[in-house]
Structure formats: C-alpha cells, structure tokens
C-alpha cells in the first residue's frame, strides 16, 4: 500500500493529529523491489509482507445487530486472513434466533477458510457478570445484562481482544455492503499502524464517499451529514488551542471504522452508544493533550516554542525524508486516512442521523476541554436545530472506565466457565482443547 505523506502538523500536548492522508495505491510494489519505505516526496510504502505482519497481530471486532446473514458473510470475506475476527452481536434472540444464525455463518466461514474466530452475544448474563465482578459494574444494567449500544459492544470486543495477546484492534461495521471496502479498511489499519512511529497510535478512516440513491441515481456524497456537523465542532474546539488555524483538521470525528494499538485502547475511557467514536478522540486529548509543564492548562496551547512542544506544519522535504523508525517518545499519534472505496452501508433514516449527531455533540459539550463560551455557542446551535429546548443541558453520554482497569484474570475465569453465548472456532490444525484467549 502507498499512502500520501504523514504531515506531523499539530501537536496538542503529547497528541499529534495528522491531517487526512490519501491511499495512493491499495497494493504497491513490495519492499524487496523497492526497499525505501518513505519516498522523497514523503509517500509511505508498506509492503504486502509488512501489512501481513501487522495483520497477524490484529483483532478485528465486528459489532452487529440484526444485519442480513449474507451481508455479514460478505464482511467476513473482506477481512484479511491474518486478522483474528471477534463478532459482538446484539441481534434478536426470539423464536427466530438471529444470533444462532450468525454463529452458523461464522462457523461455516471458519470451516471453509480454516480460520479461527470468536463470537459473543451482548445480552449474555454471564458475560455481564464477568464484567461486573472483574471491576466494571458500570457496564451492567439493573436487569443484569450489558447495556445495549455500539460503544458497549466495542468494549466487550476490546476486553476479549486483550485476552488474545495481540497488539492491535480494529473495528469494522457489520452493515458494510461492499466486501472490497472492508478489505481496504483493514489494509489501511495495518498500513497506518505500521507507519505510525508511536506504540500509542490510532488510525481513523475517512471514507472516500458515502453513496446515496436520490431520484433513481447514485450520488457519491463526500461527507455524511452527522459527520460534517460533528467535525465542524471538533475543529472549533481544537482551534481554541492552536495558533495554526486549520478549520478542517478533523475529518473523522464519527469514524466507525478505526483501529488502534491495544496499548492505547486499554487506557482510554470509552463512551456508550454512538458517542464512542467522537469520544475516543476527545478522551485522547483529555488524557494526553496536557502539557507537562503547564499542569493547569486543560490542553497545551500550540504555539511555536511553547512548553517544549511545537507545531510542525512543514511538509517533509527532499533533504530530510521522515523515517519510520519507532520511538517511544510518549507521543500519541492519530492518523486519518482516506480510503478509495465508497462506504456503502444500510441507510437507517433521518432519525438515526440526528441521534448520531446529537450523541457526538453531547460529548463535545460536556468535555472539560470545551471552554465556556464555546459550550454556550454549541448549546445555541443545538437549540436552533431543535435538539435542545431553550436553556436545557444536553444529556451526558455514559462514560466507562478504561478496559485496561479490568481484572483480566477474574474476567477470563468467569467468562470461560459460565458464558452461555461465547463460542470459539478453531482451525483443524489446532488441538481441540486450544483456546484463542488465555488468562494473563
Ligand atoms: P452508522 O453506520 O454509523 O450509521 O451506524 P450503524 O447503526 O450502522 O452502526 C454501526 C454498526 O454497529 C452496525 O454494524 C450495527 O449493527 C452495530 N451496532 C449498532 N448498535 C449496536 C448495539 O447496540 N450492539 C451491537 N453489538 N452492535 C451495534
Ligand atoms: Co452503518
């Protein structure tokens, strides 16, 4: 894969947010032919071998809820062979047990491809109990089940991923209609995580287009409506903390498809429902955006020479191509990468778009990083949109403790002993008693 240059533009404390990079070639010449990983122009080339090595260390979590089996099967077909799949389902389990059908689809896929995978249901009472006893009672409702919501499903996926010993986690929606897009997302995850210099890195996908059908014609809309609004407010927030105004730095506030190092993911507080994606970015800034020399400041303001951290808006030059050498400098890197394939997914209607937007804006409103004046401006915007009544405060999303605070030994013991929905599919070459997860 060939990506456009990583431009290390903005540093907020220890957080480096890179402007969007393009995928230039989905498949590029291997490094044995072209040994230079970074070209003079700054393009990053990641060979097939290097992508495969990262994918061998990556878990892909698919959160699903009542998608068609054929769509899920298509998504599975797009996930590169080295990645370990974990499905977290919140599908109906009535007379027509959708979950049982998903288990069959995954089992069949694993048998055909000789791949290993895991699946679990979100309303598994024993899984909820494992979370409660392992130190995350916040995730469990008074009915004894894990709360519904995409964020909650992603938390379950991350806890399981942590038990696999793999280094990276990526998230892919189950309602992707185009398996080729899924394949590109996973390659981009691997390429971005390879290219990132820091062991604390996140790659967020900015899809090329989100096609809609209007008047019988396909329109390749560039931005979803909710994304446009959430990104705009994200950028307003960041511009409170920088002298290098870039009102379009954040293009992935709502990125459903994204990946990160588990080293980073396990430290983040995650939000429930659809607030999870914008809140991940916000929480990175809340935790790592502080300047060590200015403890009072919520985010360190970026200005040349300030507190040892500098914005570096320069594009890599011929004289000094950036290297891909890893360094544990404590920087958290956020890459935003625009894919080539369109994001074709199930359209869930106007109400759904509004809900996503509202949940994104709510976390921005409540963040301690948001200055008072901006908060008031945001509340006014939400009132004008009829999302808030005059003077009403937006509801606060559920914010969970970091998954890394779980007692993983307790979680593993209870889950493997008691869970009724958790299934693992092994390859024929693995002993029948083998497990994809282990007690840490
Ligand atoms: P959008 O694509 O951002 O508009 O959001 P979607 O509603 O399509 O959700 C993205 C993915 O998350 C889909 O695959 C959904 O099935 C899944 N999802 C949404 N809510 C839940 C939930 O409560 N639990 C689980 N397990 N998955 C969910
Ligand atoms: Co969707």
TrEMBL record:
Superkingdom to which the source organism belongs: Eukaryota
Pfam families registered for this protein in UniProt: Osmo_MPGsynth
Example of a GO biological process term: mannosylglycerate biosynthetic process
Coiled coil region boundaries: none
Entry GO MF terms: mannosyl-3-phosphoglycerate synthase activity
InterPro entries per UniProt: Nucleotide-diphossugar_trans, Osmo_MPG_synth
Any one annotated GO CC term: cytoplasm
Full protein name: Putative mannosyl-3-phosphoglycerate synthase
Organism: Microdochium bolleyi
